[in-house]
Amino acid sequence: MNLILLFKGDFISKNKARLEGRRLKHILEVHRVATGEKLRVGLSGGLIGIGCITCLNNTSLEMDVSLFNAPPAALPLTLILALPRPKVLKRVLLSVTAMGVKRIFLLNSYRVEKSFWQSPVLEPESIQRQLVLGLEQSRDTILPEVLLKPFFKPFAEDEAPILIKDTLPLVAHPAAQTPCPRNVGQPVTLAIGPEGGFIPYEVDKLTSCGFHAVHLGERILNIEAAVPSLISRLF
Amino acid sequence: MNLILLFKGDFISKNKARLEGRRLKHILEVHRVATGEKLRVGLSGGLIGIGCITCLNNTSLEMDVSLFNAPPAALPLTLILALPRPKVLKRVLLSVTAMGVKRIFLLNSYRVEKSFWQSPVLEPESIQRQLVLGLEQSRDTILPEVLLKPFFKPFAEDEAPILIKDTLPLVAHPAAQTPCPRNVGQPVTLAIGPEGGFIPYEVDKLTSCGFHAVHLGERILNIEAAVPSLISRLF
User: Fold this and answer.
1) Contacts of A100 in chain B (CB under 8 A)
2) What sign does the CA torsion over A23, A29, A32, A34 have?
């Protein structure tokens, strides 16, 4: 937790916040701070600053909060990710949030197991938990938007053509002829298939609406490695 | 499993291999192939080719094996990784193996919890399991070498200066002034700290022996995102 993310509900007066539960536990066990010490904090959706601890015991912490810096810049990236299996999804949501992605579509695909859509990991509270962990990791305050798209065809036909406007639209596809470009310096919409990849019908649907198929070399990476690799290469 | 990795012990004659256990289970449940069908295979330490299934039931599979292609090129990268916590280590070993890293040092650091060195994940069979999963993921056959370095100082003073010869030696450090270079086109030795980073003494030790401190931007990434991001940016 490189930043303690605060929410409006944590404030007991204009500049005073009180924490309990997970954040308090982490501060006690990992930061091991005392009254008078300072922690890096940020307000969800707002600025970053310092929390000076005024009261600390095993059940609650109070701090005087000053907020003065903008959070780090967002990545100009819309990520369209074929829904990974639940455990992988949790880790990928954290990682891409830490990297600064602010819009994530979770899309169905032929090779996505139907059961994944029933996973409790997709419940809003569970998604939010991963996003918060990602923001705390990278000292950010702006929660990404996560949108579930359980039907491939209407998404590819109706929504994707609008999404990709004024962006470089790419679909990661190991069989593509073109290597993924580097350091593009422009907004990107990036679609990444499931384990086993998008099927040819799906790649065709995406390319016919304007996506360019690109590869990362002859190695097929696992989702957890492929996603940061692609993002890091693009920006 | 994008490639079935075979070992010499799997061969019952010159060109015939027999599989049981994990690989058979995966082939039955995921590949769902039948007698006469072909699978992509590779010989550990050797070539890649095709296995044509001659006999298949619930307890064993036999295949005629033809090997004819070289595995994908290795990355010219020596990775020095402060030992992550065990669960993260497992995933990182898989990911970096899939990316083509062939030499991995697991190093102690002030912020590595001592208990991590006692984890069963560090036993040779457990490490080997993750490496094999990484090779199967990326259709490679060359197992990386993983070396444990539980003492920072002698490693940094005596071994690192030899290791980095004829390479670009980099230490990832969020407080560095220089951004991590891109697409360097030369061999690299890359050191990556633990959660919380190398302490200043450790960074000084590494830079005084020749490492350049570089950052990935103002966001501090989790190890699982930082490692593929750095590698993908360098190559």
Assistant:
1) 219
2) positive
Full-model pTM = 0.96
Task: Give the H or E element holding residue B44.
Answer: none
The interface predicted TM-score of the complex, written ipTM, equals 0.96
Domain at A77-234: CATH code = 3.40.1280.10
Total residues found in chain A within this entry: 235
Residue where the block lists tokens 């072909």: B38
Q: How far is CA A175 from CA A82, A218, B71, in A?
A: 17, 9, 17
- Inform me whether the C-beta atom of residue B233 falls under 8 Å from chain A C-beta atoms: yes
In this structure, the number of other CB atoms found within 10 A of the CB of residue B138 comes to: 24
Q: Could you tell me if B37 and B131 are in contact, meaning their C-beta atoms sit under 8 angstroms apart?
A: no
Alpha-carbon gap, residue A64 to A54, rounded angstroms: 7
Question: A88: which 2 tokens?
Answer: 């992988």
Are residues B95 and A224, on separate chains, in Cβ contact within 8 Å?
yes
For residue A227, the SS3 value is: helix
- Mind telling me how many Å the CA of B225 is from chain A's nearest CA? 6
Q: What is the C-alpha separation between A114 and B144, in angstroms, rounded? A: 36
- Give bridge partners of residue A189 from the DSSP assignment: A78, A169
Please state the domain extents for chain B.
4-69, 77-234
Q: Are B94 and B224 in contact (CB under 8 A)?
A: no
Q: ∠ CA(B70), CA(A223), CA(A89), 5° rounding?
A: 160
Question: How far apart are alpha carbons A119 and A114 in whole angstroms?
Answer: 10
pLDDT in tens, A56-80: 999 999 999 999 999 999 999 999 9
Count CB-CB contacts under 10 A for residue B172: 22
CATH classification of A4-69 is 2.40.240.20, yes or no? yes
